Amino acid sequence: MAANYWESTQRRHWQFTKDELAAMRQRLEDEDPGLVQSFPLPPLRHLNIYFNQQINRLGKRLGVRQQAMATAQVYAKRFYTKVEIRRTNPYLLLTTAMYLACKMEECPQHIRLITQEARLLWPTEFHNQDTSKVGECEFFLISEMNSHLIIHQPYRTLTALQADFQLNPEEVSLAWCVINDHYMTDLPLLYPPHIIALTAILFALVSRPPNASSQGSANAAAAAASSGLSAATAALAQAQARSAMNAGGGGGGGGGSMPGTPSLTPQSSSAGGYGGSDMSSIAAMDVKKAPEQRMGKVQRFAGWLADSNIDVTAMVDCTQELISFYECHEAYNDKNTREQVNRFMKARNL
Amino acid sequence: MSRSRQPTRAEVSYQPRSYPADRGTGPLGYTSKVRVQDRYKVIGFISSGTYGRVYKAHGKQGQTGEFAIKKFKPDKEGEQINYTGISQSAVREMALCSELSHQNVIKLIEIILEDKCIYMVFEYAEHDLLQIIHHHTQQPRHPIPPATIKSIMFQLLNGCQYLHTNWVLHRDLKPANIMVTSSGEVKIGDLGLARLFQKPLHSLFSGDKVVVTIWYRAPELLLGSRHYTPAIDMWAVGCIFAELLSLRPIFKGEEAKMDSKKTVPFQRNQMQKIVDIMGLPTKERWPLLTTMPEYSHLSSLQPPLSAAHHHHHHQHQHHYQAQRQASGGSHLEKWYYNTINQNAGGAGPAPGAASLQSLGAEGYKLLTGLLEYDPEKRLSAAAALQHPFFSTGDKVSANCFEGIKTEYPHRRVSQDDNDIRTSSLPGTKRSGLPDDSLVQPRKRMKEN
């Protein structure tokens, strides 16, 4: 169904386990070991970061909304689970993903404009591409995605839940940044959007308010997140313990895999678990009690999780993935990554 | 298609080979994994429209049933040498049809991207409402059996409810787009204008300036509303209900064309047709009426003639005074009872056939609920399905042809153009202004 995640092609065809993902990538490499050996690539994590940044750069040039950029990110990720990177011109693919995502997210950009901007952005890498190449690549992209073009994003869940968790503007924007950052990882191919959104909210709740750039780069979130890591882990553990008790032998925290119990879909934000009066008393608290208030929110969040059917195990894993991503991000070297990508492109005349 | 290629210098270091996945982004062109002509045998041409053409086909590889293959022309006129990008409406239709699955929405079988063309393969439906309505206008003109109407309406609403609960607006509901299978199942088709409406990035207005074929266009759209809702589909469903009853479009206005500056004119003639039957809308019944961008045009419309459906005067002995009324009240009730009674005697239904009179007062209530001026008060699909119209009287059948003897003619399939791959026609980009050229081969007969 179009706007129901539980029935979506995303859940049915594009949510993988880590093992599945690894096997798919291995299969691609095994198709042509010679190619793989001739052109070593940076670690996948670094490539992910690099591609993410290229899409964002193009998107910013075009003034495209976050949602369309996010959809382009997912298109590119899906495509590269099916096609070996070394056989493609990644800049062409990323441009095409953006072009298609803009149409899908109802903010179409002219193919000529996108091509032109891509050429200005990557003068050498994109120099022999034109609109017809983008149009052709669009066929390739849609075909590899089996025409599954509707992407459910975590932003919507975040927006829907911000009132329920009484998130203040800083918390919302921090959670928003964490969601932006997760497109640099495999998480969009591993977990449903609401798990991502809830994890991002947890990150926001356990973090100290970032003093630095509220633009919220990965680093700000990273620093914030690691400082609150123990709190996050504790909250999740608490939620897990409580939901295990509640379930009493039932499916426990496995809600994410039970299509019959969509306790939290992107459009249903009303999942209960606490009384409204409690929340209003929180809201009425003195602003100066901020740290206390924050811990109160974390407790409440954990309680809410325990009473829901949310897959807390998935959230724990999601949290760990993000933490290790933020650590890995420190070691990321843009120049090396770009050089390695451009090497195989040049050598193979892509 | 050959996939061999010249190895570049860097590749000489290892065994060159063909790359099954090397399609599109490498130096080699994109080729489809699946080819239309390997999978399907085209048995004829069904129709053409601004988007391209539709063919009827059989499976060649053991697929059961029949198929309708919709071939999109690339987004540009003339012969295609280069890729030019897929039109947004094709992208929407591909995306939505891949997600949707409901017994009252036409089922997508597969999409094949081949040779710069898009082929969407759907389950085949033998009939559509335009064709069924047309069959009943043939002499002797005879109404569609009430049980058939009831079943069609229920299934149509059921499909709409599914679309709407999934945040999909169809935006182009009309008889030609409502398919009916030979087993009497109603299937909503042609989602080329459909869109998701859950928190759109832009106002739904900003994309396509005009939607919905003019006769089925809701009053809020005619009055320039920018934030429309599923209620626009429900107005169209009301118009289709009326057309099933009377065998004529209830509001058959003439479209004012866009001017050279591409500004959308006020559709005065269409609005007048609505007012002729429904009376002038009032702010008492429709509180937001005065906020409509084109509200000022309303004052220039004529209040309804007291004879609401003057085009029926041949069958009627009633001679209403052709006098403009100041009150502007609705004539829909009169329209409804005249319609369901008109075939009660004389050249009415065959002996023993049920009369439309059996639809009774509940039929009127449903119709008036769907043709409600205020979109907020208009029946939703879910509410309409709960309407007593469906729970009283004859039971609703899942087969709209149940118990009727009429053999509807099969869809006309022409042999003029059987080559799905080479046929070329001046396909133009769908401008957002759908027209009836979509059903050209079975053009609506001139009435009267």
Describe the protein in words.
- The complex is a heterodimer of chains A (350) and B (448).
- Chain A is mostly helical.
- Chain A contains 18 helices and no strands.
- In chain A, α14 packs antiparallel against α17.
- Mean pLDDT of chain A is 82; it is low at 210-216 and 249-289.
- The model of chain B is unreliable at 1-26, 312-327 and 424-448 (pLDDT under 50).
- In chain B, the strands form 3 sheets. Chain B has a 5-stranded antiparallel sheet. A 3-stranded antiparallel sheet of chain B has the order 6-8-9.
- With 448 residues, chain B is α+β, with helices and mostly antiparallel strands.
- Chain B has helices spanning 36-39, 88-99, 129-137, 146-165, 204-207, 219-222, 231-246, 268-278, 295-298, 332-341, 360-370, 381-385, 388-391; strands at residues 40-49, 52-59, 66-72, 108-114, 117-123, 127-128, 168-169, 178-180, 186-188, 195-196.
- Chain B has 13 helices and 10 strands.
- In chain B, β1 (40-49) and β2 form a beta hairpin.
- Classes of the chains: A mainly alpha (350), B alpha+beta (448).
- At the A-B interface, α3, α5, α6 and α8 of A face α2 and β10 of B.
